[in-house]
Amino acid sequence: MDNNNNNKNINNNESNNNKDNLCDIDDKNKIDDENVLYRLSLNPNKGGLQNVDKEKINKIIYEVSKGSAFFKNAKEKEKAHFEKIKEIKKKYLFLKNQPMEYEKQQMKNIMNKMESDRDLSQYIVHVDMDAFYASVEELDNPELKNKPMAVGSKSMLSTANYEARKYGVRSAMPGYIALKLCKNLIIVPTRFERYHELSHQIRNIIANYDPDYCPASIDEVYLNITNFLNDNPNYTPSKVTEELREEIYKQTRLTASAGIAPNICSDMNKPNGQTELKNCTDEILKFLKDLPIGKVSGIGKVAEKTLNELGIKTCGELKENMVYIKELFKPSSYQFLLSASLGLGRTKIENKWKRKSISVERTFSNTSEIQKLEDKLHEISCKLANDVKKENLKGKSVTLKLKTSSFEILTRCLTISKYIYQQEDLYKVGKKVKFIYIIFF
DNA sequence: CAACGAAGGACCC
DNA sequence: TACCAGGGTCCTTCGGCT
Fold first, then answer.
1. Which tens digits make up the pLDDT trace of A246-257?
2. Nucleotides of C under 7 A from a protein CB
3. Reduced to 3 states, what is the DSSP secondary structure of residue A432?
4. Does residue A295 contact residue A268 with C-beta atoms inside 8 Å?
């Protein structure tokens, strides 16, 4: 599916020079709503959407959102994040004034070592279906083609077709907001069974090129075509990928995009196209130099903004600043960012996925009636027991998640001594957990 | 007293 | 009219026990 984490700052008309911003961190103690909008990831910046009138779209979204409890909550989050950023900036400014000679040399050594360990022997392909759910709906109902359409509900959209995107409609956008952007938008409900059916079909095609492919989501797969290339010397990586996409289209009438690279870091593709990154260090570094950090899978809007505020917008800049990142971030974040800055992903892909949790959640209208809450608990425990049974699972830790009317998320967990799977037990434990939050209020 | 479980977040689709 | 999902994974922080 399309990921929408490539947001840019919403107020790109204003002076956004981060080098300047670094100096007036204390003046900037007001959280403006534009920052909140940025956080909501409601600003359309998706590839292939150059024609949309961002200004107008943002205005509409803002008008619909402002004042809502959801918006208020986002504002609170933004405030907290802002404080964090302030701290980091302070440290950053301090470090910038230090010589850091030793650390710089050390970083150089670390990077050299990682560079020399770079594995360029593998050809990894990342296949990603274009607007998957929407395309499936068009496939089954061709009348929807060329009309603005999105899959989901009034409250939330999963994905939008390209016609709808012209209006600024996109995935993870509430349907009622989308309707404000596009009055004629057709919203069709999701049909997961159907998507899974096609997903299965697509994976079977992919298995012909790599039986050990790794599904990344319902519409995304990683595969290693190195063996295939060895067995078929007349193929090139891009020819294999072309053929694979062609085959998917032939059998399903759905288009896919793909990225080819020496590791599974690549995610740069356009609708119905493919991008190849040659197995060569210079190519990779050139590609990364101007790649916005938000494009990297794993860097979401929070991390993106944090880094942006340090003046780091591209992977190239990230690489240049790794000495500071090492001091400013937690070890695991640092490790991740270091790999990202060098364009190092895994070169081994595994498909041994093991489920670690299973869950059911439902959002309902505001209530403080205990009976209604218990009814909901009953409802989700039934669905959960059903799902658990289907997968032949059992568990001994039950977490109850509660979203308040102000969009706060609370979770309470209870671990018991024996494994359970039956609805009655799930409900019973759930009720016990629930007690905790009833006392809470 | 460190390991650990619980709660909260960030992220992805 | 009013209105922002649901299903996962992984990481960090924190505190009361063993």
1. 999 999 999 999
2. 2-13
3. helix
4. yes
- Residues A202 and A219: their CA atoms lie apart, in Å, by 9
Question: What pTM did the predictor assign?
Answer: 0.88
Asked whether strand B has any atom less than 7 Å from the CB of A81, the reply is: yes
CA A18/CA A154 separation, integer angstroms: 38
Nearest nucleic acid nucleotide to A220, CA to C1' distance = B13
Going by DSSP bridges, is the β-strand pair A409-420/A395-403 parallel, antiparallel, or unpaired?
antiparallel
H/E segment holding residue A203: helix A192-207
> Which one of A220, A304, A309, A317 is the catalytic residue?
A220
CATH number for the segment(s) A124-158+182-278? 3.30.70.270
**What integer is the mean pLDDT of A380-384?**
97
Pick from A148, A145, A125, A126: nearest CA to A137 = A145
Percent of chain A with pLDDT over 70: 88
Query: Quick one: angle between helices A101-116 and A331-342, nearest 10?
Result: 60
Please choose, from the candidates A162, A157, A163, the residue with its C-alpha nearest in 3D space to the C-alpha of residue A175: A157
Per-domain boundaries in chain A: 18-116+282-342, 124-158+182-278, 370-440
Strands A274-276 and A149-152, sheet pairing = unpaired
Checking each nucleotide's C1' against the CA of A74, the nearest proves to be C4
Work out the pLDDT band at A90, boundaries 50, 70, 90. Answer: very high
Handedness of CA A51, A56, A61, A64 (dihedral sign): negative
Give the nucleotide nearest to A412 (CA→C1'). B7
CA of A5 to C1' of C10 (A): 18
Known catalytic membership, residue A220: yes
CATH 3.30.1490.100 fits A370-440, yes or no: yes
CA atoms within 13 A on the CB side of A322: 23
Helix, strand, coil percentages, rounded to 5, for chain A? 50, 15, 40
Which among A188, A141, A140 has a CA at the least distance from the CA of A164? A188
Look up the CATH architecture of domain A18-116+282-342: Orthogonal Bundle (1.10)
CA distance A283 to A266: 13
- Farthest-apart Cα atoms in chain A, separation: 69
For CA atoms A248, A252, A256, A262, give the dihedral sign: negative
